[in-house]
Structures are given as structure tokens and as C-alpha cells.
């Protein structure tokens, strides 16, 4: 890494231990699984499409790399594109072997290509396991799909481990002298996201199996049931002195609520710092000018580290908003790229993607011309951004990846292996709109649940429209304007009937239909920094019901600062000293119940139950925890007033956990916002 380049960007070369991906070689990583019509491509444009490429790991910006095909199915003419980082569009189904020529020798990569499939067909899911049987390890897998299909399973061993898998689905223990990673893919009308296990030679202890089975795609244990709190960093602390120190002084609020994770929006030096007007998004920080330095108006690096320490003292983890799809157009690299008189112009011109370089028109998303997209086809860019990852991995507990879909999947796979190799408890959360299940299975642990979010917004809009007696045209216009950023570009609930509240159950079930990795966790949110406030848009009753949904459905609930205290402006300052105390108490009770009841945790099942109601704005379901045998029945009402929900099961002896006065005669519930009853396991 060029130390001058790091210094230019505010880094401190040599002050931190550099991480390595895998064994430190340039091997391109795990086998790839794609369909003929997908390919491994990274085009300009395609604002809502996930990208991918073929790339060396631990890249050296000064080295030479080349790709070629070693083996391919009969009839294929596909070859990788020229360049150190290549695209590949296979034309025939089957198994390909590609070779990467690098300074540390040739590296082979398996690419399994499946036939073109109907994108509307459900994707299967697969869970891989293994058992030790004498002198062999036997693989086994469970495949499922939301259809009448009969999925088959294929096994692959990582190319770095050699040919150790035998035809009967076993691996000789004698061949496992180092960790061996094995992958399983389920195949139906479409192929699944792969699952993986790692077979690790055990210590010589006599009471241990000779091989230990590890699951590299599992989330850190602390993240599975975490309650997340997002703060808009420059709006959360005191208005008079907004700094890391004054954020730390407000942590008692989070601790009292029962928060597990603090997600800080960008706090690095950025174009949009303090003083940025709201018509430009306010002081959001998503246009970085220095990846190694904090915004001096917020404080110093020591101040940030003290804030992280203060969080840890309260058992709160800290997630850093990693913005590496793009930079600000005032970043030193971009300024050099567009200025032909700059001494580093030729170097940095290739650090960005261009729609038309002669016109100085960068490749951007959604017309945001002041945040040009970085060029991941340049090994120097990847090398540099991996140094950014290394730097911040040692300072925080996890990353939330902004515009994750704009960065190639291959890079995120390397990041995941890189950071988990250094710290198995490090956490990765992606923002992908619309969410893509390919972000699971060895890339990110948790994903924004945009499908549930957009469903909750549609329900809120429906209820608000009824309350205001809007015409259909007025409702459509309001819906078109409702979201400040996120829903301007995508409606992730488009395939769900959102005219009734039971759409929230379909939104959760949609995860399985899309083939999400079994270990994928989901971030459930009513609002965030890219949406308008639910309370302001749809009213108090709908906000309470939507908030309750995020704390009672499977997933990790998230609060956006002030959601619990009555803030109505998307990026307004926190309303310290003017809390809506009734609303705050409501969320305290939700969080306490979510944290204390096993039937509301991630391991609990979601059950559809029989019920009748007098409004489309109400829904009921159950959650059951197999381990404890405990079960709850939950009912929501998004509208004003009280809904009557008649359950198809007896709840006469049920204990009310929320909504103490809701139980009427004959098993009918009077539901204002939410009712939670504990009953017998069905």
C-alpha cells in the first residue's frame, strides 16, 4: 500500500495490524454458483441490481493478474473478460474451472452454472451438516422449497482444499490435516444460496472427536436476538454541543430501554457535515472525504473510542456505517481524477466508474451526481478499501454496509472471511434495496427487511387514507411522496396484497419463498434515516401497531432515534426534555417483553392461526418456542379506535402480557394497538 496515498486520506500508516484474507494468497475464494442468465457481471447503471466479479484476494495494486478457462462444458465458448478483475458470462450449464494467474502461482476456481430458470419460481434452501463415522466424515444436507418440488443436493469442496470428497459423500479423516470447507447447494427449478461447514482437525484430547464441525455462516451469538438503535449521529446528542462526548452522556437512555446495539450513521469527515441544509439531506455524512479521520466537529478519534468504551460498559455493541460504494465529489481522489493538471490524475481517474469521462460525468445512483461510484475493477481500489475495513474492524463491533448492492459480491465475501478470521464475533449488516438473498450465505449475517418495512408502510398509508377520507387519487399521491429516499426507488412489497393487515405474515413467509439462507437474520424497522417518520405520516395508532410488529415477529427489532419519544421530523434533533412519555413507556414495555419472553425470540416459530375480525386493519398470529414449550398469541390493529378479533382457539385462561383489559367474553379480543397473551402450546 502506498503510504503517501494513506496519508493523503488521513490515515496513519503502520499504526495498525493489517489483516489478511484466508491464507494471505491471491486465491479468488469460494466456488461460485450462478445460472446461465445471471453470469458474474458488474455493469455500469443497473441501479437496483446486485453486482459481482472475479477478483484476486489480498490484491496488490502493482501486481499483474490474468484469467483463463481451464475446463468447460461441451459446447461452451465463454471466456472471462480481460483484466485483473474479470467478468464471466457462462453460456452452457455445467461445471467450469477457471484459472487465475497471479504472482504467487496459478489458482483454480470452480464455477457451477445452472440452467436458466423462472425468476418467479421459489428458490430452495439447504442446511449442511456432517458427522464423524469411524475414520470418515459423512456429509448430510436438508433441502426444502416452497412448492411441490423435490430438491436434490450437490456437494463441493473449496478449491484450496484439494480433491478430498469421495463419491459416497464422505471425506477420509486422514485427508483433513487443515481446515476443510465444504459447500452444499440445493437444486430444484432454481438453485439455492449455498450453505457451508468447516471441518477442523481437533486437538489431541482423547474425549473429543478427531474432527470438529464449524458453521462459518452463523451470526455472532450476541447479534441473533439483538435490539438495535440507530442514531443520526449529528442529530442525536445535545443541540448546543453535539459531540461524541455528549452522545456518550445520553447512553443511559439506551441502557434503560434495553438496547443491545448502537448503529451510528457516518461520523467520518464528509462533505455533508454540520450546517448542511435539509434540502441537501441535512448533516448525513454519507459522502466521505476521509476514511481514516472522524469529523473534527464531532471530536477526535480518542473521543470516538471513549464512546465505544462507554457503550461496552453498558453491554451495548457499536456498529459503524461503512460507506464504500462511493465517495464525495470533494474527496481528494475524485478531485485528482477529474483534474488533468493534478500530478496523480492518471492514477485516480481509474479509481471511479464513468458514464462519460470526457464530460466528467461519473457513474452514480439515482442522479446523485455528488457521490461518484468507486471502481472495484481496479485492484488498487480494492486494496485501499480493504485497508479501510482493517482499520475500523479493530475499533467497532460490526459494519452496516451502505448501498451494499453496489459493491461486488466477491468483495463482500472476502470482507466476511477477512474480518471473521480476525474476530469471529464481528457483525455484518447489509443495506440492499431490494433485499437480495445472495447477500447471505457467507457475506452478511443480517439484512434490512425491506419487504416487511414496505408492507408496514402500505398498511399505514391505507389506514391514514381511511382516517382522512382521502380519495384514491389523493392516497396514491400521498403514497408516492411518503418516503424521503428509500421507497422513491423500489416497492419491495409489490408482490404482496397489502389491503389487509395479514400482509405482514406474508412478508415474513416471503423470506423462505425467496430462498434466504437459513442462518440469515433480518432487521425489522418501522423507519430509518432514509424514510419519513411513521408517526408523522400515518398517526399514533398505526405507529404503535407497526412498532409492535417489529418486536413480535421473527427478526431483530430496530428503533430509529426518537421513534420511541415522538420525534416527527425525519432527521430532526432528538427531542431531549420533551419526550412523549406515554409512547416511551409503550416501547419500554415492548422491548422488555421481547427481551424476556422466549416465544418472541428468533428461535421461536411463527404460527398462522384462525381468527375473524371486523376490519382489514387487524391481524392475529402465534409464536411458539419449542425449547421452553411457551407460546403467545399476538393481535395488532393499525387503525384508530378498537378492533374486535375473535380467535379460533380458547384464550379464557390466557395471561395478558400486553393489553390487560383486551380479553372479552367468548374469546374475543378488543384490540387498540397490540395484545399479547400467553397460553398453552397448541
TrEMBL record:
- Top-rank taxon of the source lineage equals Archaea
Domain spans labelled Glycosyl hydrolase family 13 catalytic: 230-594
Q: Key word Hydrolase present in the record?
A: yes
Residue ranges with Basic and acidic residues bias: 14-26
Segments of this protein annotated with the region Disordered: 1-62
Q: Which Pfam families match?
A: Alpha-amylase
Under Gene3D superfamilies, the record lists:
Glycosidases
Q: Which InterPro entries match?
A: GH, GH13_cat_dom
Q: Name one GO molecular function term.
A: hydrolase activity, acting on glycosyl bonds
Output this protein's name.
Alpha amylase catalytic region
The cross-references to SUPFAM superfamilies, in alphabetical order and at most eight, read: (Trans)glycosidases
What PANTHER family does its record include? ALPHA-AMYLASE FAMILY MEMBER (PTHR10357), MALTODEXTRIN GLUCOSIDASE (PTHR10357:SF210)
Which UniProt keywords are given for this protein, alphabetically ordered?
Glycosidase, Hydrolase
One Gene Ontology term of the biological-process aspect is: carbohydrate metabolic process
